[in-house]
Amino acid sequence: MNQKEFLDIVLPIKNNLYRLARRFLISSDEAEDAVQEVFLKLWKNKEAIKKYRTPEAFAYTMTKNYCLDRLKSKQASNLKIVHTNFENRTDLEKHIEAKDGVSLLFKLMETLPEQQKVILHLRDVEQLSFSEIAKITNTSQANVRVSLSRARKKIKDLLLIQYNYGVQ
Amino acid sequence: MEYSKIKDLLGVYFNGETTLEQEKSLRVYFNSNQVDPRLKPYVVLFDAYNKAGQEVLEGSLILAKKNRVFHPWTTRAAALVISGVAVSAFMYSATIKAAQEKEALTAFKESKELMYLMVNQLNKGTKTLSLVDQFQVHKNKYLK
């Protein structure tokens, strides 16, 4: 496999991998580094990629595992930087509101277990099918549905509590 | 879309049973400006997912720098060449050393001979000079 073939496989999903890394690592620099590392690892194992029926799923899984490793390592202990990357609104008030809402939602997402977080991200942000998500997370489609439902319900509950200022 | 329909769809959504098309229609509805006030809390949810999906990796990725993998035989060949060069350099320097030593020895020998020759000549000279002393002795006898 030469460089061009390799890039044809992995470049289209670089943003997807970045977004996934972003859900785990929060800081954009850290997520960028993660994608870079995953790419290097994939490139080193480029012969192995051929054996996988879906290289994309392999790359996703690798990114997820890499991020989890990073979080477990000591290096990540001081890497939690506030999420501030949404700046395309002209209406300032609306912008602030949206920004608050968005960062609030990501904070809520952080409370989810890792598997649920990944599944929720892959489905609601990346809009992947259940079969693709099942391949990436190495579970059955039924499990994906269950985890997704739990994750969505938990986010909903937390969101409603926030929205009602803790009064239910 | 009317409120009841969306509410039903949301129920299905939270059970994880919506299809991608249904989720897309939910997303379209919540990102429009005609959201029913009773469904307002969910706007943030779909807005956030929408925003998160727009994030892109801005930096470029590096592949070329670190991907130079050497075959095992190239490293072996390189090691062989380096050790060969080292050994031959050592041998060459050893032969040069031997030649230099020989040269120095002959030079030493020759200069030694030369010194002997000079010393002999000098001795001859001093012997003749002793006659000058004799002259002095005899002169003193007569001239007091």
Write the layout of secondary structure elements.
The complex is a heterodimer of chains A (168) and B (144).
Chain A: H1 3-10, H2 14-25, H3 28-44, H4 46-49, H5 55-72, H6 92-110, H7 114-125, H8 130-137, H9 141-163
Helix pairs in contact in A: 2-3, 2-5, 3-5, 5-8, 7-9, 8-9
Chain B: H1 3-14, H2 20-31, H3 41-53, H4 72-142
Notes on the protein architecture:
The complex is a heterodimer of chains A (168) and B (144). Chain A is built from 9 helices and no strands. Chain A has 2 domains: 1-77, Orthogonal Bundle (Rna Polymerase Sigma Factor, Chain: A); 91-168, Orthogonal Bundle (Arc Repressor Mutant, subunit A), CATH 1.10.10. Chain A has helices at residues 3-10, 14-25, 28-44, 46-49, 55-72, 92-110, 114-125, 130-137, 141-163. The radius of gyration of chain A is 17 Å and the shape is globular. With 168 residues, chain A is an all-alpha fold. Chain B has 144 residues and is mainly α. Chain B has a domain at 3-53. Chain B is built from 4 helices and no strands. Chain B has helices at 3-14, 20-31, 41-53, 72-142. The longest helix of chain B is centred in the last third of the chain and has 71 residues, at 72-142. In chain B, 10% of the residues are buried. The model of chain B has no long low-confidence stretch (mean pLDDT 85). The A-B interface holds A 3, 6-7, 14-15, 17-19, 22-23, 31-32, 35-36, 39-40, 43-44, 85-86, 98, 101-102, 104-106, 121, 123-127, 129, 144-149, 152-153, 155-156, 159-160, 163 and B 13-17, 20, 23-24, 40-45, 47-49, 51-53, 55-59, 61-64, 66-67, 69.
